[in-house]
Amino acid sequence: MDDMHHFVIVGGGAGGLELATKLGNKLGKKNKARITLVDAALTHVWKPLLHEVAAGSLNSDAAQVDFRVHAQQHYFEFQPGRLTGLDRSQKTITLAPINNRKGEEVVAARRVPYDTLVIAVGSTTNDFGTKGAEEHCQFLDSQLQARRFHQSLLNRYLQAEHAPEGERDIHVAIIGGGATGVELAAELRYASQQLESYGLHNVKESNIHISLIEAGGRILPALKERLSAAATRELNKLNIEVLTSQPVTEITDTQLTFAESEPLNAEIKVWAAGIKAPGFLTELDGLETNRLNQLKVDTTLATTLDDCVFAFGDCAECWNEGNERSVPPRAQAAHQQASTLYKTLVARLDGGAAHQFVYKDHGSLVSLSDYTAVGSLMGNLSKGSMMVEGKLARLFYVSLYRMHQLALHGFFKTGLIWLNDRLMRVIHSRMKLH
Q: Global pTM?
């Protein structure tokens, strides 16, 4: 086993887990290579679903993938740990110690050797240094953060339920009118409509005030203007306040301050505007990074200074020839990059050439909970782009998650998962209230 080529993948997000799974099924199963996945968490939840976990409309326990179990089923190894260092000359990475809840060390810091290293650690929210954002806002970068938000929301519901009449209003402010912010706003409205049916009779839907704040001129700037306007109309129908051209200058425990308008009261604040790569990437043995901490890679996804270290997904700055913008931080981009990198790494064992990555934009879809969806589809479906709304867009949106499951589990198991999901919707409540 020591003589086998060792692929180490750091980051078990959508792209990293898909790549480890494909390499395990292709190479690990036949003992042609050793594949190790490293992640600080023990389970995987598809990141575009985190807003549903936060609102309580998705039970993350049912949707998560256990890294150890999945590794055993797909012929790769799993190492829990957080990347803290890289030694390119010795071809080793360093993982931080693992501590228990009391801060006691359970596993000491470790060094893991590699022949080929792939970094796919995703991104974190970028608060752009806004005063008070870090102290007073909640973020949705991980399953743990989504669960914490959900718990704080439940506590606020309970507090309002037992408060005197006139003191039951809950004000939620979501900063960022991109896909995450819009989807979270709609999901929270859906949750507020279910409260009475689950025994909270004093807190009404009208008590939940939701504001979506966008610094730019319109929400969903990645979509066509018509779709952005359609989404705004749908949010307004749901009694969600949409504030555009309102850059936030300061956040306190109870308020948001704007540059040119009156402050907004809000006791629950979520920052969902902008992304950046984790800061530790700027300290990885001299690898080149940009101002967003992303690792710079060439068209084969190899880092610019080391062809034994690759990076992809949100943590990498990747350009396609002739494009004025880098590849956008989307799940579809990570999926495409994982597929290209898989071909490169398989060929690498036999000294083959690396494959060039070419991003194909298949469009964007945004879900407004169970109400509707909007988006544009591109590529093979039309010569240009096709704008979709309503039930058709919702169907396409749901299919994106099923495609991710197919990449991880194959057709048969994904079919069983789909059937189980349908049964659970009948047996269990739609909302998670604990």
A: 0.88
